[in-house]
């Protein structure tokens, strides 16, 4: 299934429920091929035994509804305390009609025990073999006869049943940031309606991949029941590991990452971050990590103060350079050296380290004043 992108991010797990389909009883498959016929993504193949391609399966439940032998099982997976909890879900079976029953009496005569008659719940096989008449309406299409026949003499063809689609996800337009992630993961193009409206009910399979991948939770399952959301941690960019590539800034779907005015380094705003984890996924140096929210708020405040303080220093350097004028060779050299020094430090993204080591005490005092002032005002 296409469900492995953000399932390492704890706070999102608490609000996401996914579905999976498994081939739980492969030995029960009678080879009718209905599952492969109804699968909308071509994830099922039936030859000597049934095979399910998990990468293409979207858990629409069509195979579960159509299978007369209960080969498939449908599960709902939710996350409690970061551990996946799997719960089997009963899916109503589709009404299956029999198109044809055939018995090759030439090979059937070799069989002495007639196990097909014994397992047939409606007596249809007894009528066929002993009375040579067929009542298609009486057959339920259980395929028990096909399964137990030792010579493969019994042939049953089933009609493709009418299947029920699951309800559409709901869209909250106010939360949608038009990141188009739902378009990318939707197997049928039903999400092309987003953000103008809910997914197309004619094409939606109810796989809810769009819900699982939506970074802002603008798309919800129709049966969604809100759970408590983890808010004690948030994503934070570690300055000593950040190389200033700004890839995180480009992928953030809610503009929660700002670029500092002077250092030109990215900073995540804790109050804007929706904890989708796309920035952490995209970072080439693993500089984005989870930290306690309070710690992130303190560090962001520190970096903003540092940026402002550096801005003052930068302006004073430029003003000092301009005061030299350009009347002599020596003065011009001084101005060029100052400009070159500033430009080199900015390009190498070393400003933050200069701040940390050369004006650390000043920053600490400013931080203490700001924090004490905020605490004195109260919540």
From TrEMBL:
Keyword Protease in annotation: no
Statement: the UniProt record of this protein carries the keyword Aminoacyl-tRNA synthetase: no
GO MF annotation terms: 4 iron, 4 sulfur cluster binding; metal ion binding; oxidoreductase activity
Family matches, as InterPro entries: 4Fe4S_Fe-S-bd, 4Fe4S_Fe_S_CS, Fe-S_Ferredoxin
Superkingdom to which the source organism belongs: Archaea
Transmembrane segments: none
Domain (4Fe-4S ferredoxin-type): residue spans on this chain: 19-49, 50-77, 99-126, 130-159, 167-196, 200-224, 233-262, 264-293
Keywords, ordered alphabetically: 4Fe-4S, Electron transport, Iron, Iron-sulfur, Metal-binding, Repeat, Transport
PANTHER family: ADENYLYLSULFATE REDUCTASE, BETA SUBUNIT (PTHR43687), L-ASPARTATE SEMIALDEHYDE SULFURTRANSFERASE IRON-SULFUR SUBUNIT (PTHR43687:SF6)
Descriptive protein name: Ferredoxin
Source organism: Methanopyrus kandleri (strain AV19 / DSM 6324 / JCM 9639 / NBRC 100938)
């Amino acid at each position: 299934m296409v469900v492995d992108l953000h399932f390492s991010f704890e706070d999102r797990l608490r609000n996401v429920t996914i579905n999976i389909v498994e081939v739980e009883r492969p030995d029960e498959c009678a080879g009718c091929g209905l599952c492969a016929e109804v699968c909308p993504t071509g994830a099922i193949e039936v030859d000597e035994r049934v095979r399910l391609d998990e990468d293409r399966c979207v858990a629409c439940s069509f195979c579960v509804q159509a299978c007369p032998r209960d080969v498939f099982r449908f599960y709902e997976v939710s996350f409690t305390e970061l551990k996946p909890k799997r719960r089997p879900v009963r899916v109503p079976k589709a009404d299956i009609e029999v198109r044809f029953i055939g018995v090759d009496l030439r090979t059937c005569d070799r069989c002495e025990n007639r196990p097909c008659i014994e397992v047939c719940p409606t007596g249809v096989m007894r009528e066929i073999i002993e009375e040579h008449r067929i009542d298609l309406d009486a057959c339920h299409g259980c395929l028990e006869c096909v399964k137990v026949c030792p010579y493969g003499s019994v042939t049953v063809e089933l009609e493709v049943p009418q299947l029920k689609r699951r309800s559409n996800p709901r869209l909250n337009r106010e939360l949608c940031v038009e990141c188009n992630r739902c378009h990318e993961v939707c197997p049928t193009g039903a999400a092309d309606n987003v953000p103008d409206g809910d997914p197309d009910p004619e094409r939606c399979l109810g796989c809810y991949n769009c819900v699982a991948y939506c970074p802002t939770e603008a798309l919800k399952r129709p049966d969604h029941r809100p759970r408590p959301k983890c808010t004690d941690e948030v994503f934070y960019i570690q300055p000593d590991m950040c190389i200033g590539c700004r890839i995180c800034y480009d992928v953030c779907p809610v503009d929660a990452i700002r670029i500092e005015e002077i250092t030109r380094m990215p900073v995540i705003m804790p109050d804007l971050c929706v904890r989708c984890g796309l920035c952490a996924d995209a970072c080439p140096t693993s500089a984005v990590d989870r930290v306690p929210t309070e710690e992130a708020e303190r560090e962001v405040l520190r970096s903003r103060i540092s940026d402002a303080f550096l801005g003052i220093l930068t302006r004073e350097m430029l003003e000092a350079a301009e005061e030299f004028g350009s009347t002599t060779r020596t003065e011009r050299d001084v101005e060029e050296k100052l400009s070159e020094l500033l430009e080199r430090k900015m390009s190498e993204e070393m400003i933050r380290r200069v701040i940390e080591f050369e004006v650390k005490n000043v920053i600490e005092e400013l931080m203490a004043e700001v924090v004490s002032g905020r605490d004195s005002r109260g919540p």
